Amino acid sequence: MEAQKVLQALYTFYDEFTTNLPVACGLGCATCCSVNVSVTSLEVRFLRQHPALAKQPLQDAITAAQDRPYFSPSFTTNELAKACLNRRQPPEEIGIHASGQCPFLGKDGLCQVYANRPFSCRAMLSTCRCTQDGEAVMAPFIYTVNLAMYQMIEHLDKKGTSGNMLDFWAEKSSPLPNRAIPGFLVPPEEKSRFRGIKTALRKFPVNSGSLEDFFPADIFR
């Protein structure tokens, strides 16, 4: 349960970070709510605690979605980061994004498990309506912060696995083993600005301590 408390602290940190960002996303905006959602096993355990998942119609929607194509990642974020930091050729992504609405999306266009949604959903913030350009448009620094959050969530669940959200329900494929964080993957032009994010992350409260208690000290230097 401690890992879930840390996960929720990371979610809260990100929510506070994005509160005043100029984004076009709003209530009922669901263009990005697809079947192509990558998660960690820790996030799935937290997601399963949402009471809406006890309802049969939602279970039926999940079962139906499992029978359609969906994206399954070929590597984890920290696997990619380690290759890049070591100046090696990054792994090749062979997974293909598929069309299809997220089974957690209700008929009213609202997420039925919103409070427990994984980070992949929280990270979809666009400066314009996705219906206009067909995809989310983000500032480069948001991509940098998002990547750091993905890395920390994977490290937090380093004994667990990653895969498509539906993989964990369908058990169709073997999810990927998670990796420890090798260091943040930050573009040179973003390093100065990112120092403030590292400081804020390090000091962010969790129970009687802070986030730095759960991650390697050197990643915050």
Please give a structural write-up:
With 221 residues, this protein is mainly α. The protein has one domain. It contains nine helices and five strands. The protein is globular. The relative contact order is 0.20.
Instruction: Give the amount of beta strand, in percent.
Output: 5-15%
Order of helices and strands: HEHHHHHHEHEHEE
Approximate shape? globular
| Total number of helices | 9
Number of strands: 5
What count of structural domains?
Answer: 1
Indicate the structural class. mainly alpha
Mean pLDDT: 90
**Low-confidence spans: pLDDT under 50, at least 5 residues?**
none
**What radius of gyration results from the CA coordinates?**
17 Å
**C-alpha termini separation:** 28 Å
The gist of it:
By secondary structure, the chain is mainly alpha-helical. The chain has helices at residues 2-18, 41-47, 56-66, 77-85, 119-122, 130-133, 140-156, 167-170, 191-203; strands at 38-40, 161-164, 176-177, 205-206, 209-210.
